Amino acid sequence: MIRRQLLACAVSLATVSLALPAAAQDNWPSKPVKLISPFPAGGTSDIMARMVAGALSKEFGQQFIVENIGGAGGTIGTLRAAQAAPDGYTIVQTGVGQNAVAHGLDPKLGYDSMRDFIPISQVHSGPNVLVVHADQPFKTFQELLVWIRKNPGKMNYGYTHAASGHMAMELLKQVGGENGRPLYIVGIPYRGGGPMMQDLLGGQIPMMFINQDVALPHVKSGKLRALAVTSKARNPLYPDTPTIAESGIKGYEALSWSGLSAIKGTPKPIVDKLEAAMKKIMGSPEIKQRMESVGFVIPAQGGAPYGAFIQSEIDLWTRVIKTAGIKAE
Q1: Distance of CA 192 to the CA centre of its chain
Q2: Cα 243-244-245 angle, rounded to 5 deg
Q3: 242: closest CA among 102, 144, 160, 313?
Q4: Number of other residues whose CB lies within 10 A of the CB of residue 195
Q5: Are 130 and 228 in contact (CB under 8 A)?
Q6: pLDDT in tens, 112-140
Q7: Which listed residue, of 66, 73, 147, 230, carries a Cα 20 to 30 Å from 57's Cα?
Q8: Under 8 Å between Cβ of 200 and 224
């Protein structure tokens, strides 16, 4: 009898212990949620994170607070997120640099983008634009490509290490040559996009890949000429600028992107709530207009397509980085 009573007591206690987390999940979020953006304030990633945080705050009636933890190309903040408690009160902004390119640069990151996070939704996708200084003679991407092929090593470009523009150029070099040979273009490294843009506008460097929103005012002013975009489809900000794929290099695509992920172990009901909220938010006319006004595309929503996309990006950039011999700085 005593054993039966003890067993019944144990079952009762187990039921209570299981019910408490379930109740907490039902009430989530009952306090502010931290969204880690692994980049400094003010850049495109930060703007995307704050847009998402603001929309989620309205959706749930609870604060979603952006915490900027920059450094090492986004890997410091991402590692911090991977170490957070999986209780739904910490989520993280994921993206091409810290969750795809970084794996090719450093196999010992301290986190695994597919193992340590739960994809919730991709937020944005945008191309880089191949721009040349207005004094350059090239009017089309094909003209530039033909000249580079005939004059190996005589064309320079600017880049910041492991940024999306750098990766776009490395991919172009690897697939844009002839007879199995890569394009031979000489890269000039910069510590930041600001000084690089100044040198491009000043004519010190002839070309580079740059995010479509950053390039637009200089293209409109006539100081730069846009020759091609790196997405598979033309960008709404550059309707007359062809893609690299349609300009002769089939299958070429190099994107800048970000999304939202939860920490591994976050209860499924919370993940499901976040995923449903993001589908609603990203499908709203207001968000769609805001994104398209700066040339960003809203990709397919949901955790499954976002997870598959992240894996494809890891595979692509790991291969490109290995072929190019690029190392982490």
Answers
A1: 18
A2: 90
A3: 144
A4: 13
A5: yes
A6: 999 999 999 999 999 999 999 999 999 99
A7: 73
A8: yes
